[in-house]
Design goal:
The protein is α/β, with parallel strands linked by helices. It folds into two domains: 21-77 and 178-254, no CATH class; 79-172. It has six helices and 15 strands. It has helices at 12-18, 24-29, 61-76, 109-120, 130-140, 160-170, and strands at 22-23, 43-47, 55-59, 86-89, 101-103, 125-128, 150-153, 174-180, 185-189, 195-197, 202-207, 210-215, 226-227, 232-234, 247-250. The strands form four sheets. A nine-stranded mixed beta sheet has the order 5-4-6-7-8-9-10-15-14, with helices on both faces. Strands 1-13 form a two-stranded parallel sheet. It has a two-stranded antiparallel ribbon with strand order 2-3. The protein starts with 11 loop residues before the first helix and ends with a strand. The relative contact order is 0.15. The structure holds zinc ion. Zinc ion binds at residues 190, 192, 194, 196, 239, 241, 243, 247.
Length: 254
């Protein structure tokens, strides 16, 4: 039986768990079917996915505000505050915050000179795709570099050899960022190597070995019990780093 708008079903908790999981392919095929309040759209995103065709999603102001808050809070776990500028290196990534910078172009002598100037000038955190960061690192191996605070890898699977190369070259922790933006799923790895998920944004379930997620803030395009197909495993034991919250491991589908 349908309820009137504004009324909560007295049986909503059990009813929620009876909802069929939503598959990534279903959402990608017909994103318009999931639009709730189109008038409040302030954000349009696309998620590349592994099968070529992007998935388009929409969200509102509250979703965007919470997303930025959660991101900044996760950065603070690594001591990256709003006064710590992040340099986006040789990628199509947009700067996240006003103080952040970008360096683009082919990795050649001119690029490396500009790059060294930027890190000597105050950029202590790098962010980029692992493949591009490793390309830059390949030219800098064995060079004395200014002390960096962290390297943040995003957008691609981070392989162990890439992490080792980046750690050896830049002499700092390498943070792996995981995200499934249309589901509101995001998290950074910790010093113990686990992924700390931003549970303030999402409700996570594990059903028959699959992780389902419900975005708690996207009322524009409600995505409920979403099974997005990545091989994300949740841990049921506390993390050795001492921080609380839901942690997982992302193997990148290998
Ligand atoms: Zn941890």
């Amino acid at each position: 039986m349908l309820e009137c708008p504004g009324q909560l079903s007295p049986d909503w908790q059990r009813a929620f768990f009876r909802l069929r999981p939503l598959l990534w392919a279903e959402l990608r095929e017909s994103p318009h079917l999931f639009l709730g309040t189109a008038g409040e759209i302030v954000y349009r995103g696309s998620s590349s996915g592994s099968q070529g065709r992007p998935l388009i999603y929409f969200a509102g102001q509250q979703w965007d505000t919470v997303r930025n808050y959660s991101r900044d809070r996760a950065f603070l776990d690594w001591g990256i505050g709003e006064d710590t500028p992040i340099l986006n290196v040789a990628s199509r990534l947009f700067p996240l915050r006003p103080k952040d910078g970008v360096i683009l172009g082919t990795v050649d002598e001119g690029f490396l000179e500009e790059f060294l100037g930027l890190i000597e000038g105050g950029f202590r955190v790098l962010r980029g795709y692992p493949s591009r960061l490793c390309e830059v690192a390949g030219y800098l191996q064995g060079k004395r570099l200014p002390r960096l605070q962290a390297v943040i890898c995003t957008g691609e699977v981070l392989f162990a050899w890439q992490m080792a190369l980046l750690e050896a070259t830049f002499q700092c922790p390498v943070i792996n960022k995981y995200g499934c933006p249309e589901a509101g799923v995001a998290g950074l790895s910790c010093s113990a190597g686990r992924l700390h998920l931003q549970t303030e944004r999402c409700f996570f379930e594990e059903v028959e070995g699959e992780v389902l997620v419900t975005d708690l803030y996207n009322t524009v395009m409600p995505i409920i019990r979403y099974q997005w197909g990545d091989v994300l495993q949740l841990y049921d034991t506390p993390c050795l780093c001492g921080r609380e919250g839901v942690t997982g491991n992302y193997s990148g589908g290998e």
